[in-house]
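>> Question from a student workshop board

For tomorrow's exercise we were told to take the sequence and the ligand below, predict the bound structure, and bring the output to class. My setup keeps failing. Could a helper post the expected result so I can at least see what it should look like? The ligand is inosinic acid.
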Amino acid sequence: MSGPAQPGAPLVLVMATANPDKASEIREILGGEGGVRLVPRPADVPDVEETGDTLEVNARLKAAALSAATGMPAVADDTGLEVDALGGGPGVRSSRYAGEDVTYADNVAKLLAELAALPGRGGVRRARFRTVALVRFPDGREIWREGMVAGTITETPRGEGGFGYDPVFVPDEGDGRTFAELRREEKHAISHRARALRALADALRSEGVGT
Ligand code: IMP
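>> Workshop helper replied:
Here is what the output should look like for this input. Compare the format with yours to find the bug.
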């Protein structure tokens, strides 16, 4: 760790994500936790290649790069959508599913086309979002936690909120609306990201960091 935490002083974390949609969710979720203050990723830090085969490795790559570049503890989140009928894909490749430099809509269109081409209507649309949230300290120490939410993939996109695959994901713990039809706080009550980040904040508190 970079030094003993001052009792009562917030833990200042630099955010590793360059994705503004993820950054605003991380702010909203951790903002309610207390004990943590977030600073944005500096614009001059180069993009980190997500070359890992798992969410954990990619979260570590991003957090370690930002911690090394800034000398501060860094928080990263890596997320994948796992669809049973696609053998758990796109998973760790969720952001590049339809190719490099594609839009969220391109990825959603590819997902719906792949599922529509599969034989059998039932069963094939079971899915889950999984997030690994990881804090890395400048001395190499790290803490990470995972969050998951299960649901189904719709046949057509619905809703204007959220981002990524939210318009085609209906969480089991809801009332049939997609994540993109939920209010932001409704998504945060059950989402993969919120679960991972709240568990991470709990772990930091029990380690006595930032409390
Ligand atoms: P990564 O964690 O930046 O690698 O995110 C992978 C991809 O998953 C993103 O580009 C989005 O398309 C998607 N994604 C990440 N988080 C969410 C979410 O909360 N809802 C819907 N899609 C998401």
